[in-house]
Amino acid sequence: MENQHFPFFIFISLVLFLSSFFLVSQKWNKSKSPNKTLPLGPWRLPFIGNLHQLMSDLPHRSLRNLSKKYGPIMHLRLGNISTIVVSSSEMAKEIMKTQDLHFVDRPQIMSTSIIFYDCTDIGFSSYGYYWRNMRKVCVLELLSTKMVKSFASIQQEEISNLISSLRSNTPDT
């Protein structure tokens, strides 16, 4: 007779454990991130965020329709990444010209930190003294006129290889 209540007891224990785990993790995530005021945006699903609203043949039209509903600046979650979408030319000018130093940094993602040597390459490093020096070295040493001209023969060879490959793969009409 006591064994009849055992599965029910396990079920109740599991539900209580999962609900307490969910509440603690939510509280921990809220305390970990600073309190930010984000623009309004559409509802989102867990894990994929707003990706389901952009999955169409013409995602730019989906963004246009969302901007008509939520305004020229809106908040979307693309998977795990929080994204601000600006669809107004005045707001874009404000962000890109006037407030550019506030928006210039790149997100620090664990995968880029692992693959790109703790984000010390030019593509993923944070804006600052180090990035400006890396950019200067690249422009002066790698992208100078002398260096670009030194690769002209290789570029011509690769272009001719591409053209011959395209000719061999196109059907005769």
Task: Describe the protein.
Belongs to the cytochrome P450 family. One of its GO terms (cellular component) is membrane. One of its GO terms (molecular function) is oxidoreductase activity, acting on paired donors, with incorporation or reduction of molecular oxygen. It is found in: Membrane. Its main location: membrane. This protein has a two-stranded antiparallel sheet with strand order 1-2. The mean pLDDT is 82. The protein has helices at 6-32, 51-54, 59-70, 89-98, 100-103, 110-115, 129-142, 145-150, 152-169, and strands at residues 73-78, 81-86. A hairpin with a 2-residue loop joins β1 (73-78) and β2 (81-86). It is 58% helix and 7% strand. The chain is extended. The protein is built from nine helices and two strands. With 173 residues, it is mainly alpha-helical.
What is this structure's SSE topology?
Blueprint: H1 6-32, H2 51-54, H3 59-70, E1 73-78, E2 81-86, H4 89-98, H5 100-103, H6 110-115, H7 129-142, H8 145-150, H9 152-169
Antiparallel strand pairs: 1-2
What would the keywords be for this entry?
mainly alpha; extended; 9 helices; 173 residues
